Structure formats: structure tokens, C-alpha cells
Amino acid sequence: MSTLDRSQTPIVDALLEWVATSHAPFYTPGHKRGSGMNSLLKNRWGADVFGWDLPELPGLDNLQAPSGILASAQALAAEVFGAQQTWFLVNGSTAGVIAAILATCGEGEKIILPRNIHASAISGIIHAGAVPIFIDPEYDRAVDIAHGITPEAVKFALERHPDTKAVMLVYPTYYGTCSDLATIAEIVHSYQIPLLVDEAHGAHFGFHPDLPPAALAAGADLSVQSTHKLLGALTQSAMLHVNNTSRIDVDRISRALRSIQTTSPSYLLLASLDAARQQMALFGTELMSETIELAKIARSKIAQIDRLSVFELNSPTPGCNYLDPTRLTVTVTGLNLTGFAADEILTDKLGVVAELPSTRHLTFIISLGNTRSDIDRLVAAFTELATNHAKDKSLELPSIEPPTKTLTEMAITPRQADRSRHISISIDEAVGKVSAESICPYPPGIPVLIAGEIITIEALDYLRSIVELGGELVGCSDPDLETIKIVSI
Ligand SMILES: Cc1ncc(COP(=O)(O)O)c(C=O)c1O
């Protein structure tokens, strides 16, 4: 039984003391507790918040080597999130994902991961000099969504690459879908290597039985959570948790984080992590019950609106064993609108702003900060959209599918591609050349090219179709795709 008092907030308490202490400040930051701050901000934010923007004063702590209040707050977080050790992050899950790779893979060492991994993992691979082995995620044609990867795909990849040093999953995906992590963990552990999980969108999972199981509880050795995305923490605040210190070298994690995080972390962010953890420790189940209830109301009311459909998981499918009920994806093509067009109307005319518009649908994050009136507004906006903004002209959306590659072989590593000379060439001459760009269309969010891969005709045809559809290509130097950067050999 834990001896920690979950109601404590060590960071908030120490900051409060400093805020209340009269003194002449001769330390950073330059605004000196707000007095040097532009009144433009002071008038709008209120003067008080700046008093909390403090550096590592006596009694506060050092994020690079925590031994006081930060160590205590991280220990409290580890206990609440079911970890052996937790690190607070001030550069989002981005920093945690990079650190996880740096701490488990060295130069020339292999890591298995899904192609629809976040860009931060590609950065981690470049920093580490690791060799990625990409698995195609399961693609759901019916909704144009990429899910997770299957245990079979992980087994297949490990059989072909038994010298792999780590496996990384995205769990959940942006759309809230979760793969069979427990079975994947068993397979990965049979090779005595760690399972790393990018759980950026799953910080709320451990707090209610109706949510998918949290990654650590399902068998992950390490998980990175964007506390700021789902819980009550400020943007950029995140956590990295380790559950198995025999498979993960915690000193390597600390060293990696020291090399990629600032030496001047914001105490506003750190205090928000402390407070968010305490809030979930004390009221997590209750808050999640309310959030799930709100999401249920939204799901059922929107599903009843003519020509709209809500993505649901009636029974597990490959790569999608669970769906986070608080993640709402609404398909709008029945109204002869693309998700982008619907998003514009919802935002500009109906006062509702989605998280992620895509070609066919829009995805909404419903979290502990939402209220019943937000949900009523969302339902009213969709009712109005369907009644007064649907188009008569039928929407021509050619059915295009991401090219499947199944265990991509790289020509050179992403690091070699990054360090090489890059030249821009006409797209017509690109087939067979090594891409210097990682290009990812939304939807479905699966990178079609990764820096270091050979450019294929299938990849280019697919990317061209996305551009023709008006979709967004992230990561390409020429958004019109007339030219592309390749590695100059
Ligand atoms: C799956 C996934 N992983 C990692 C990240 C990076 O998270 P952060 O914004 O906290 O750095 C994101 C951000 O959107 C994400 O969607």
C-alpha cells in the first residue's frame, strides 16, 4: 500500500511560498515577477500569474536532476499513473518520444514501429541514428482511418529482425483507436526487448473502466503521455513513465532528457502537471464518468441526425481492439461536404471548433474541460449543418488508398538522409531516387514517404491524388508537389 499522500501538491505549495515572500528579485526571468511585463499582457492575463514564473530558486528544484519538490511531484505522478518512475516534460510528448528512442536504440540499431508514427519518432530516429523497420497500420477503408498494428504484424517483423532493440506503438491513434497492446507486449517481451508506447492521446485512460486500458497496465514498459492534450495541464506539459526498469535503463532516459529539454523549464508548466495529477488522483473516476457521459450524449444525438454518421467500434477489428469513447469522429460526406468544408462552416458560422478535420470526417476531443452546453452547441451545430448547409451536388471523392508496403526497407537511414546534401528535382524525375523528405497526408496520417526511402510510382500517384482532392500534405517542401527534395548521392 502506498504511503504517499495523493492530495499533496509539492510544486504548487513551494511556488505559493515564493509568491508570498517579499524580496528584490535579481534573477531570471527578466520581467521580475511581472513588473517588466508588457501591460498588453498584464492587463489581459492579470498580474498575479507572472509571480509564479520563477526559476530554480532555493526550495524549488532542478528538472535536470530533481531531488526536492520535483522529485516528490514525479513520485506522486508515478504512483497515480502506475509507473515505477515518472519524468515531467516541458516540451510535450515530443521530448518524451525522442528520449524513449535515444534511451533504447543506438547508432545502426533497429526499432520496429508503425508507419503512422508521430513526427517526433522520426526525429528520435534521426538523433539516435537508428534503423527503423516500419509496419503498415491497419487501414479502415469504410472510414478512411489508419488504426494500430496487429500482434501478427509485430511477430512477423520480429521474426525477420530478431536483432531489434525496441518496438514502439501509437496507442491510441489520433482517432482514439487502440490495438491489442497486451498481446503485442507478450510477443515483444519474448525477445527480451522493451515495448515503448506513444500514449500522447491517452493520459486519461487509467481513470475509468469504460476507457481503454492504460498502456502501462496492459504491459508497456514505457509510456509517453501529453498530459496537456486530455487533462488539466498547460500546453507543452507531458509525462514519461517507465514501468520496467530492468528493460529500460532509467539513467539513459534522464541523460536523453537532459540533452533535449531546456535547462530553464517553466514552473507554470510544472505546477500545472502537479495540479493535473492531484486533480486526477482525487477526482479522476468522477471526472471521467462525467466526460464519458457527455461524449455518449454527443455520439447518440449526432448519430441520429440524417446523413451523418459517427465512428463506432461494435466489435474488435484488426488494429482496433478498443475505441476511446471520448474521441468523436463524425463522417459528413452524406451531406455532400468534405470534412474540410464542414469544418469551415462549423468554425466560421456555427461557433464549433474541431480538433482534426479530414477529407471525409471531423474528429472532436471531448475532455474533462467540456460542459453540457458545449455538447448542446455541438449537436445544434451539426443539426444546422445538416439542415441548411448540405450540398445537392454529389461529392466526387475518388476512393484512394495508401500504398501498402509491409515492412519497408530503407535505402539509407533517416539520419543519413538528414545529413546528406538535398536537391530539389521535378516530381516527374523522382521515381527510383532516395527521398530527403518525409511526407504525410492527412487523412489518413500515414507517411507515404520517409526520408531515406526509395520514391516509388505508387507513392507519387497516391500523393498526387491527395493534392488533387485538396488534402493536406505535411512535410513536403512544395505543397503543389511539382518538385520534391531528394538525397544527392
Ligand atoms: C500520436 C502523437 N504523438 C506525439 C505527439 C506530440 O505531442 P506533443 O504535442 O505533446 O509534443 C502528438 C501530437 O499531436 C501525437 O498526436
Characterization of the model:
The chain has helices at residues 10-20, 39-45, 69-81, 92-102, 119-128, 151-160, 181-189, 215-218, 227-230, 250-260, 267-303, 339-349, 372-388, 414-419, 457-468, and strands spanning 85-89, 110-114, 131-135, 139-140, 145-146, 166-170, 177-178, 195-198, 222-225, 238-242, 309-310, 322-323, 327-331, 356-357, 361-365, 422-426, 440-442, 472-474, 483-487. The chain has a seven-stranded mixed beta sheet with strand order 1-10-9-8-6-2-3, sandwiched between helices. Strands 11-13-15-14 form a four-stranded antiparallel beta sheet. 35% of the residues lie in helices and 15% in strands. It has three domains: 62-276, Type I PLP-dependent aspartate aminotransferase-like (Major domain) (Aspartate Aminotransferase, domain 2, 3-Layer(aba) Sandwich); 283-388, Aspartate Aminotransferase, domain 1; 414-487, Ornithine Decarboxylase, Chain A, domain 4 (Alpha-Beta Complex), CATH 3.90.100.10. With 489 residues, it is an alpha+beta fold. The chain binds pyridoxal-5'-phosphate. Residues 92-94, 97, 118, 120, 170, 174, 198, 200, 226, 238 line the site of pyridoxal-5'-phosphate (PLP).
